[in-house]
Amino acid sequence: MRISTGMALAVVLAASAAAAADYHAPKNGFGQPDLQGAWTNASLTSLQRPAMFKSLTLTDAEAKALEARRAAARANADKPTDPNSGAPPSANDPGGYNASWTDPGVTLGRINGQVRTSWIVDPANGRLPYSEAGHKLYVDTLSKARNSWDGPENRPLGERCVLGFGSTAGPPMLNVLYNNNYQIVQSKDSVAILVEMNHDVRIVRLDTRQHLPDHMRPWMGDSIGWWEGDTLVVETTNFNPGESLRPYFDNSILLSPGAKVTERFTRVSPTQILYRFEVDDPTVYTQVWKAEMPMTATKGPVYEYACHEGNYALPGILAGARKAEKDGKKIEAVDVSGR
Question: What share of the chain is helix, strand, coil (3-state, %, to 5)?
Answer without folding.
Answer: 25, 25, 50
